[in-house]
Design brief:
This protein is mainly alpha-helical and 122 residues long. 50% of the residues lie in helices and 10% in strands. The termini are far apart.
């Protein structure tokens, strides 16, 4: 069975991406959920949100690397991030677009997870 991939616009080029693992999705959700609640203006995030993203870039980078199919695209993205031509916000957008394409329908908004209740240790 062939791997399911999609082409996603990123930094002015089309990048082939695969579906992230379920574990990667959980980690991404944890990182984005823990970002400060701040209004995003002009497609940029607040300094506090950017600081949080910077602290988690290694983890996010590993997830994005695992999603990008071609080594040339991974190398290009690394250079583009270093020279500032591709901002972090654009990477999150590419993950969103890949998810929409892989799931066959555009996302309709944030997904609310059900609360989990744990018993206290005895």
């Amino acid at each position: 069975m062939a791997e399911l991939t999609v082409l996603v616009p990123l930094g002015g080029r089309e990048v082939e991406m695969r579906k992230p693992t379920d574990g990667a999705l959980v980690v991404l959700a944890r990182i984005t959920r823990s970002l400060p609640n701040s209004k995003i203006e002009n497609d940029t995030v607040s300094d506090a949100a950017r600081d949080k993203l910077v602290r988690n870039l290694g983890t996010i980078g590993n997830i994005v690397d695992s999603m990008i199919v071609k080594a040339d695209d991974r190398d290009w993205l690394e250079e583009a991030m270093v020279d500032g031509t591709v901002p972090v916000e654009e990477i999150f957008d590419s993950i969103r677009v890949a998810g929409e394409k892989l799931n066959g329908a555009p996302a309709t908004g944030p997904v609310k997870a059900a609360a989990v209740r744990r018993r206290a240790a005895r």
